[in-house]
Amino acid sequence: MKKIIKVMTVLCAAAMLTACSGGSSSTATTTAAAAPAETKAAETQAAAETSAAAPAASAETSTWPDKNVTILLNQTAGGGSDMLTRLLADALGNVTGQNFVVENDTSGASMTAYETTRNGKPDGYSIFGTNCGMLTRIASGQYNHTLDEFTVLGLYTTPSKEGYGIYVKGDSQFETLDDLIKYDQEKPGELITSGQTGGFVMFMEAELETRLGIQPTFVEGGSDADRILTILGNSVDYCLLANLSARQYVESGDLKCLAMVNDKSDLMPDVPTLSESGYENINMSNLMLLLGPAGMSDADVQAISAALEKASKDTTLVEGYTKMNCVWDYQTPEESKKTLEDMYNIMVSVYPTVQAMGLG
Fold first, then answer.
1. DSSP string covering 125-194, please?
2. 193 pairs with which residues across the strands?
């Protein structure tokens, strides 16, 4: 990228979780008139072991949730991430009998949400929904904390065909990807795009520019919803957008997609992929994840995980996800953390390119 023009910033808010414990005690006495000494000793030892075990068992018992739960989401209301999170909240309510309330907070470029969660009470009643943009901020050093300072509760999307595409305005002069590339070659620096500095899309943008050999000017644009407005307002020539966010604008004719950067889209099967256009596809997925602060009890984490597994099979949620062409294959907290660590390692490997292009 040739230059960076700061226009806007956005972002997010926070979450938390943890447990309860209890205990009981018992004592045993012996008398001289009792059975043989060995028998009495064994009985006393057994009683002591029972007494010691009781608090431990109780400590592993969770009552979560016995009241309303807040899901803090650092995404704009009405966007794809918001819709998925609200489907999740309704499903969790169905399987637990408690109310799950989604609160959108895009303030402080997401730092408010991150820190609210990281410093929150680990009782499970305020949890944090976010996406892999958090990992890019950690990888880029914009957020000076690590995933280990949070509790990974699970994922609520897993990689699917509906990734990202290269979108332009419906009446744009660019009809194909080759048109856009040719324009950049003939008029270096005049092609304009937007994104969020240090965010997930910027890592994809860096990979895209490398693959296509283009050098557009970058304008700070914020979330998908914000970047759509920059296209519709003729402020930029193209943007990388999530297919789920852009679909309705394509259907209305306000946007058109030149190429899919991940896999073939079921939503827009006529749009070619990068590989079909002669370039390598970008193997990155922006997943939705659920976090709490560090220090949550194993009992509460497992209770939440069990609720997530049930929610993933909720009929209304499955129907909603299907309509949005989203996939959620339940993963345990341990599996989810491994998936996120793998994605983070990709971010770290891409970041030098992001820096070299002045994107992060």
1. SEEEEEETHHHHHHHTTSS---GGGEEEEEES-B--S--EEEEEETT-S--SHHHHHHHHHHSTTT-EEE
2. 218, 238
Closest CA to 293 of 106, 95, 114: 114
Query: Which residue's structure tokens are 């953390």?
Result: 337
Q: Could you tell me how far CA 283 lies from the centroid of its own chain?
A: 16
**Residues 125, 82: Cα–Cα separation, whole Å:** 19
List Cα–Cα distances, 247 to 171, 255, 325, 346, in angstroms: 16, 9, 11, 27
- State which amino acid sits at residue 294: A
**Segment of 90-94, 154-158, 321-325 carrying the highest mean pLDDT:** 90-94
Helix (H, G, I), strand (E, B) or coil at 5: strand
Are 134 and 143 in contact by the 8 Å Cβ rule? The answer is yes
Q: What is the pLDDT of residues 87-110, one digit of tens each?
A: 999 999 999 999 999 999 999 988
Return the ∠ at Cα 1 (arms to 79 and 111), rounded to 5°. Answer: 45
For the record, the structure tokens of 102 come out as 């989604």
Spatial contact of 168 and 180, defined as CB atoms under 8 Å apart: yes
